[in-house]
């Protein structure tokens, strides 16, 4: 191992010790911040309570794609899938309009034999919801693709040097107020 470089620990010492126990079940908790209200789910069955909120169990119908960690600075995406899902869930997904660029968070945790947390869940991934694919048919499926916040580095920031743009960002600032008048202005410099 290279000197001076250490890995960031994700598990508390208590959780790391419990991970080697005969019974330690790894689970993933998901929180999606939809405009209509947050959806909280986890990869087990039944309700799971943590930090004052309840996560609904998805069991075998929920899947999370591999969560990639990279050494280089680039956007990483994940896909969350529900399949098969009841028709009422498909209808809700089709009606949801304001989800793009809203927060998505995933935590990892270990549960003991009684289903209690061995230690507090630790952050696995944080990003933004991007696209949702809803397949309606014999076996309905919903796939939600999420991107890490680094995707913002790849997006062009559309800003203009206009009074309207400046007012939208900083109301009351008059810096660009006279720029349009300067475009057609004829400025004569004194002869030297």
Description:
The chain is α+β, with helices and mostly antiparallel strands. It has one domain. It has helices spanning 13-19, 87-95, 163-169, 179-183, and strands at 25-34, 37-42, 47-50, 53-57, 62-64, 77-82, 103-111, 122-135, 141-148. The chain has a 9-stranded mixed beta sheet, covered by helices on one side. β1 and β2 (37-42) form a beta hairpin. The protein is elongated. The protein starts with 12 loop residues before the first helix and ends in a 9-residue tail after the last helix. The relative contact order is 0.17. This is Transcriptional regulator. It comes from Roseomonas alba.
Distance between the termini: 70 Å
Number of strands: 9
Query: Kindly state the mean pLDDT as a whole number?
Result: 84
Q: What's the story with the biggest beta sheet?
A: 9 strands, mixed
What does this entry show, briefly?
This protein is α+β, with helices and mostly antiparallel strands. 15% of the residues lie in helices and 34% in strands.
Jot down its keywords.
192 residues, 34% strand, Transcriptional regulator
Secondary structure layout:
Blueprint: H1 13-19, E1 25-34, E2 37-42, E3 47-50, E4 53-57, E5 62-64, E6 77-82, H2 87-95, E7 103-111, E8 122-135, E9 141-148, H3 163-169, H4 179-183
Parallel strand pairs: 2-4
Antiparallel strand pairs: 1-2, 1-7, 3-4, 5-6, 6-9, 7-8, 8-9
């Amino acid at each position: 191992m290279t000197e001076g470089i250490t890995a960031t620990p994700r598990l508390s010492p208590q959780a790391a010790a419990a991970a080697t126990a005969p019974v330690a079940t790894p689970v993933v908790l998901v929180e999606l911040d939809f405009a209509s209200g947050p959806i909280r789910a986890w990869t087990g069955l039944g309700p799971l309570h943590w930090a004052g909120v309840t996560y609904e169990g998805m069991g075998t119908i929920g899947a999370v794609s591999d969560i990639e960690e990279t050494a280089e600075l680039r956007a990483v995406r994940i896909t969350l899938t529900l399949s098969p899902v009841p028709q009422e869930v498909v209808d809700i997904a089709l009606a949801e309009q304001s989800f793009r660029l809203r927060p998505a968070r995933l935590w990892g945790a270990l549960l003991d034999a009684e289903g209690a947390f061995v230690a507090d869940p630790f952050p696995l991934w944080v990003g933004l919801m991007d696209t949702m694919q809803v397949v309606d048919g014999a076996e309905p499926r919903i796939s939600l693709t999420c991107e890490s916040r680094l995707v913002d580095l790849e997006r062009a920031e559309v800003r203009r040097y206009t009074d309207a743009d400046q007012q939208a960002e900083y109301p009351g600032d008059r810096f660009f107020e006279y720029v349009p008048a300067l475009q057609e202005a004829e400025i004569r410099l004194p002869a030297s």
